[in-house]
């Protein structure tokens, strides 16, 4: 257990370092216009973007979640948790390549829906993205308050307020540049956790051979299934809900799209590939914490396996672990907050409320939104901590993806996809999955009680099916080449219309 | 009825896969 004083010192040191770094990048990159704030000028190098993408996907919850999976199903829990997370990076590649070809001037991917369909479709997409991004922030903060508060004895609400205050300030300064630069430092910190502390934990318990023997002894008759990669017993409860929800979450996440638009256009698939595979290796290393837990304890619930196992580390390592946990947590929350600030500035303010807004006005709104939504996420997390479990929260976060991925794909690759089909598909899917989710938890209604993966599958089928059927009945005839030619100062080859320089 | 994971992670090495996973499940069965 780390003392309250040490915990408070770590929070202050982390906050000071992140704000100082963001101020440095704000000055270095001249983050004084909307394009720099939202897309880092579209010229970020592949190393910075890959690190930022990977560490955004390394959720603080993984440190708890992966050992929990191992505690439930053994070594197979490694790929059951990691594969859906990696799937997102793979699935988003065709979307990203198509979008960067069709819509090179994009600042947020949601603006594409105005060009493709119109304002109604855009408003529907904004709604889904906004609550999905807020939920993403709440999920991270939920874990931060629980873990850091639990390890230090500081009130979780105070921990969460400090976290959101610091993140809100450094995003206000540096926008996406601030997010990606702090992400790089946080990425290196996450590597230290997996490459130094996890092996240290393994050695504290006698090394891999000793851990294996203790696992066999502790698990008894369950050892053969728990030490098999082909243990499919928990696939319906653990793998499928994540694959159908969070497995396609990257396509919906504006945080992913900001990095897609930020990286050089000729490196789009490379950063998604290396970043995605890197997330798998990181999650695989977290599973070792679960192996140690199974070897060291015989009566610990899977959900507590991670904290108990990490408690085996010496005190100095526990303090450094806490600092790394802060880093991993900050990297994800700051990405969602930057995304929300961009959405508020471009998609809501500029596209619907003040279409003649100057660049300065848009930038002011983005900066205001970074503080405003930091408060919203904090309040929502305080509410969530007292009324919902972490797993429920995590799965609700995947519902938005089940409504949007299929219709989005149809809109990108099928010229007959219509606004009526798209809007109906997304809205009806959201209503149906919300009802089924409420029924599965017995909230207001109780039938039909479907499994979580079945609810996700219904969401995908309804949204994609309705979009396809209604579009086929009353088809659009969209000319994709028209998107890149209208209303932009940047032309399709990435150059500038009417000249070599801006 | 692997801890390769460490080497793979050590990924980290800082003009404006599926086959290995499937094989691992088969071998580790």
TrEMBL record, chain A:
Its main location: membrane. GO terms for cellular component: plasma membrane. The chain crosses the membrane at residues 6-26, 38-59, 79-99, 120-143, 158-177, 184-203, 239-257, 269-296, 316-344, 365-385, 391-414, 421-443. One of its GO terms (molecular function) is symporter activity. InterPro entries: Na/Glc_symporter_sf (IPR038377), Na/solute_symporter (IPR001734), Sodium:Solute_Symporter (IPR050277). Coiled coil: none annotated. The keyword Ion transport applies. GO terms for biological process: sodium ion transport. It is a multi-pass membrane protein. It is found in: Cell membrane. Keywords: Cell membrane, Ion transport, Membrane, Sodium, Sodium transport, Symport, Transmembrane, Transmembrane helix, Transport. Belongs to the sodium:solute symporter (SSF) (TC 2.A.21) family. This is Na+:solute symporter. It comes from Halobellus rarus. The lineage of its organism: Archaea, Methanobacteriati, Methanobacteriota, Stenosarchaea group, Halobacteria.
């Amino acid at each position: 257990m780390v003392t309250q004083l040490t915990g408070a010192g770590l929070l202050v040191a982390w906050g000071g370092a992140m704000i100082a770094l963001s101020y440095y990048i704000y000055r270095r990159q001249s983050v004084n216009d909307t394009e720099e704030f939202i897309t880092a000028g579209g010229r970020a190098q592949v190393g910075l973007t890959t690190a930022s993408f990977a560490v955004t996907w390394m959720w603080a919850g993984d440190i708890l979640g992966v050992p929990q999976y191992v505690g439930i199903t053994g070594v197979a829990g490694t790929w059951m948790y990691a594969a859906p997370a990696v799937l997102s990076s793979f699935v988003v590649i065709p979307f990203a390549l198509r979008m960067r070809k069709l819509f090179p001037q994009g600042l947020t991917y949601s603006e594409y829906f105005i060009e493709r369909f119109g304002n109604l479709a855009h408003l529907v997409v904004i709604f889904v993205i906004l609550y999905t991004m807020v939920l993403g922030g709440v999920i991270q903060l939920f874990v931060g308050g629980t873990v850091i508060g639990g390890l230090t004895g500081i009130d979780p609400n105070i921990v969460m307020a400090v976290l959101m205050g610091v993140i809100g300030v450094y995003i206000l300064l540096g926008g996406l540049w601030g997010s990606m630069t702090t992400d790089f430092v946080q990425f290196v910190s996450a590597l230290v956790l997996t490459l130094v502390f996890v092996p240290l934990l393994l050695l504290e318990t006698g090394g891999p051979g000793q851990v294996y023997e203790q696992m066999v002894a502790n698990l008894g008759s369950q050892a053969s299934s728990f030490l098999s990669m082909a243990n499919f017993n928990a696939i319906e409860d653990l793998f499928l809900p994540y694959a159908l929800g969070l497995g396609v979450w990257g396509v919906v996440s504006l945080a992913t799209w900001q990095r897609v638009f930020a990286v050089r256009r000729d490196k789009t698939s490379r950063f998604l590939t290396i970043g995605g595979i890197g997330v798998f290796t990181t999650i695989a290393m977290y599973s070792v914490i679960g192996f140690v837990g199974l070897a060291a304890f015989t009566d610990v619930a899977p959900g507590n396996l991670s904290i108990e196992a990490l408690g085996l580390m010496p005190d100095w390592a526990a303090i450094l672990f806490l600092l790394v946990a802060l880093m991993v947590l900050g990297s994800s929350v700051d990405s969602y907050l930057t995304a929300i600030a961009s959405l508020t500035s471009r998609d809501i303010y500029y596209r619907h409320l003040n279409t003649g807004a100057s660049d300065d006005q848009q930038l002011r709104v983005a900066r205001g939104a970074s503080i405003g939504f930091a408060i919203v996420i904090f309040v929502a997390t305080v509410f969530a901590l007292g009324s919902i479990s972490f797993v429920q929260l995590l799965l609700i976060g995947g519902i938005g993806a089940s409504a949007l991925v299929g219709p989005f794909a149809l809109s990108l690759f099928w010229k007959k996809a219509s606004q009526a089909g798209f809007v109906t598909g997304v809205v009806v899917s959201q209503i149906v999955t919300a009802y089924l989710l409420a029924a599965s938890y017995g909230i207001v209604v109780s039938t039909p009680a479907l499994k979580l993966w079945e609810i996700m599958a219904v969401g995908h089928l309804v949204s994609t099916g309705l979009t396809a059927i209604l579009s086929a009945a009353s088809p659009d005839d969209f000319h994709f080449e028209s998107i890149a030619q209208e209303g932009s100062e940047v032309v399709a080859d990435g150059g500038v219309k009417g000249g070599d320089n801006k | 009825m692997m801890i390769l994971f460490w080497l793979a992670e050590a990924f980290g090495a800082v003009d404006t896969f599926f086959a290995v996973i499937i094989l691992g499940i088969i071998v580790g069965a």
